[in-house]
Structures are given as structure tokens and as C-alpha cells.
Design a protein that fits this description.
Distance between the termini: 23 Å
Radius of gyration: 13 Å
Number of helices: 3
GO molecular function: 5S rRNA binding; structural constituent of ribosome
CATH architecture: 2-Layer Sandwich
Protein name: 50S ribosomal protein L18
Strand order of the largest sheet: 3-2-1-4
Organism: Morus notabilis
Number of strands: 4
Keywords: Ribonucleoprotein, Ribosomal protein
GO biological process, one term: translation
Largest sheet: 4 strands, mixed
Length: about 110
Amino acid sequence: MLKKYNGTPMKPRLSVFCSDKQLYAMLVDDQNKKCLFYGSTLQKSIHQNPSCTTTEAAKRVGEELIKACNDLNINEISSYDRNGFARGERMQAFEIAISSHGFLPR
């Protein structure tokens, strides 16, 4: 069964994919079919400055997401889509970083 998502420019959908080694996060505006933010643990600016583990890089992706939301005047997200993945170390580090700013829906 397919879910219908409802991301808007002011309340986008947060989609997170966690592979065996990396974490990818996107803020998606479903109405206009646009990606407002994309971040991953593979980005050189996140992973290599200074060098860190993938768990620490996942936390940095969450911090970059918060910065992007502040720049775009986004105060909340419409839904949090984990794509069926369980909460591993990288996912928990990412969620802690964004929940401290109130971006996880209740």
C-alpha cells in the first residue's frame, strides 16, 4: 500500500535513507516536486572537516539540516519518513540532532 505524502514549501517532508554504511537525508516539497535540502555522510564538507566516523557525520547532517531550515524559514516538518529502516546508531545520532530543535513530528 502506498502512502500519500503531503510536503509543502513551508512544511516539507523529511525523508531519510540509511544504507549499510551511510545516511542520506532530504527535505522534499511534494506539491512543487522539489528537493529543498539534501545531505549525506558522504559529502566532503561534512565527513572530512575535521575527519570523523559515520555516526558523527550523521549528527553533522542533522545540524546542516537545521541550518538549512533556518535559512528557508521552515519551523516544522509535515512527516518523517524513515523508509522502513530501524533506528541504528547513525539514525539515532541524526534524530537526536534534529529533535533538539523540535523538528520531529509527534
